């Protein structure tokens, strides 16, 4: 049996995701789908609107067979480490044959060319990248600028377009990760249809981005029923259940008190020890706290934002402080050592057969519970669950400790 891997957040799972799943199986000829899914905190430094078990159930009911958790050490990272962790996890299963990701063009050749040029980090490109970083550009912008100049010097400027498209950029990093890992997984890409990544308005009667759906639900006149045309019935039912239980929708303001508690109790030297606190950002944070008109994450982000400190960079910074993630655990050297374990969030009957194969073929231990392993990254995942549970309407120890007590979702 062949198996395709997909890398997802499902925040929430919508009709566009359903199309991606169906087409991924079709174009790869796969029998099974393995999803690597971010846990409670996502790539742009945001909390997921529903917890990882609810979103794993969405994935299973939409057609995934096995859902694996991307550790929070990788899930809230810039593209290069998000991709490295995600691809590394698929590769570590030993059962995934192909990877299918969305892109603006649906064309793989240009991205493969870029990956072949950049994966080994040639000295000239690294020098250009370091130069851009010294100019104060955030890493994504510095990477794009350096790679574009590197391509131009080689007479390949026409391929630089791919670097300006968000799904292309992420796809490029997936391809680079496959090369760095020397993975046998075959990549495929699908053209993203009818809704662009991060598009905040709705322009189609059936397809809308997750960003637009969250905006719709969290708006002043938002209601769950407004999502009905854009998500599968199973997603709608799960969201309704989670909202009635007070476990959704979760957003940054739900964490304002625990976040500000951490910010108030840390001095500048202590703040500087957290991952993502770079280039004197600890001073800017401390200065901003004294000027804020209210205890609001949105207000703090606005006060901190500059050309150098983008909204996404700042969200990731505040997340590291909220979760207590220090630099030594998230250094480039540590992240480069790769995936240390596989955490199962959910499966169906086909997924159970894949798990049986993984007991023989997986490159790292496979865990159904955080109590089974001793990796520091696994402990970080469990602590992220505990912090996330503070946002529920009725926080409870059972929710905080669920990583240790609850089995995977099984359909």
From TrEMBL:
Role this protein plays: Catalyzes the formation of N(4)-acetylcytidine (ac(4)C) at the wobble position of elongator tRNA(Met), using acetate and ATP as substrates. First activates an acetate ion to form acetyladenylate (Ac-AMP) and then transfers the acetyl group to tRNA to form ac(4)C34.
Annotated EC: 6.3.4.-
Protein name as it appears in the record: tRNA(Met) cytidine acetate ligase
Binding site for ATP: 7-20, 102, 167, 192
Cellular-component GO terms for this entry: cytoplasm
Pfam name, any one: HIGH_NTase1
InterPro entries per UniProt: Rossmann-like_a/b/a_fold (IPR014729), tRNA(Met)_cyd_acetate_ligase (IPR008513)
Keywords (A to Z) from UniProt: ATP-binding, Cytoplasm, Ligase, Nucleotide-binding, RNA-binding, Transferase, tRNA processing, tRNA-binding
SUPFAM superfamilies, A to Z: Nucleotidylyl transferase
A molecular-function term among this protein's GO annotations: ligase activity, forming carbon-nitrogen bonds
A single GO BP: tRNA modification
Compartmental location: Cytoplasm
Family annotation (PANTHER family): TRNA(MET) CYTIDINE ACETATE LIGASE (PTHR37825)
Organism: Cohnella cholangitidis
Family to which this protein belongs: Belongs to the TmcAL family.
Class of the enzyme per the UniProt entry, highest EC level: ligase
Major localization class: cytoplasm
Reaction equations catalysed: cytidine(34) in elongator tRNA(Met) + acetate + ATP = N(4)-acetylcytidine(34) in elongator tRNA(Met) + AMP + diphosphate
Coiled coil, from the record: none
């Amino acid at each position: 049996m062949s198996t395709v891997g997909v890398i997802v957040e499902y925040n929430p799972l919508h009709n566009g995701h359903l199309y991606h799943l169906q087409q991924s199986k079709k174009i790869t000829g796969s029998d099974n789908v393995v999803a690597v899914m971010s846990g409670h905190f996502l790539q742009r430094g945001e909390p997921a609107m529903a917890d990882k078990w609810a979103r794993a159930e969405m994935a299973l009911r939409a057609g995934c067979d096995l859902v694996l958790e991307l550790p929070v050490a990788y899930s809230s990272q810039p593209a290069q480490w998000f991709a490295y962790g995600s691809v590394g996890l698929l590769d570590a299963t030993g059962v995934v044959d192909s990877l299918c990701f969305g892109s603006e063009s649906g064309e793989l050749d240009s991205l493969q060319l870029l990956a072949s040029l950049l994966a080994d980090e040639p000295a000239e490109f690294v020098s250009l990248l370091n130069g851009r970083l010294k100019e104060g550009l955030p890493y994504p912008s510095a990477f794009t600028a350096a790679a574009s100049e590197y391509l131009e010097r080689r007479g390949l400027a026409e391929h630089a377009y791919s670097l300006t498209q968000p799904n292309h950029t992420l796809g490029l990093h997936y391809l680079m990760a496959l090369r760095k890992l020397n993975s046998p997984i075959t990549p495929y890409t699908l053209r993203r249809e009818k809704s662009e990544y991060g598009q905040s308005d709705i322009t189609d009667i059936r397809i809308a981005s997750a960003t637009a759906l969250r905006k719709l639900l969290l708006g002043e006149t938002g209601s769950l029923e407004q999502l009905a045309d854009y998500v599968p019935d199973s997603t709608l039912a799960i969201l309704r259940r989670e909202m009635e239980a007070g476990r959704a929708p979760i957003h940054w303001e739900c964490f304002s008190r625990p976040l500000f508690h951490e910010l108030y109790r840390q001095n500048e030297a202590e703040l500087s020890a957290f991952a993502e606190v770079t280039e004197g950002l600890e001073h800017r944070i401390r200065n901003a706290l004294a000027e804020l008109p209210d205890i609001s994450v949105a207000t703090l982000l606005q006060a901190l934002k500059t050309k150098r400190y983008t909204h996404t960079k700042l969200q990731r910074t505040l997340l590291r402080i909220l979760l207590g993630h220090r630099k030594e655990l998230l250094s480039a050297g540590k992240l480069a050592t790769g995936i240390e374990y596989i955490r199962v969030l959910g499966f169906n009957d086909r997924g159970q057969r894949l798990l049986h194969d993984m007991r023989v073929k997986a490159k790292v231990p496979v865990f159904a519970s955080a109590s089974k392993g001793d990796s520091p990254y696994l402990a970080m995942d469990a602590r992220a669950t505990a912090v996330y549970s503070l946002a529920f309407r009725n926080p409870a120890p059972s929710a905080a400790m669920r990583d240790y007590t609850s089995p995977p979702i099984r359909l």
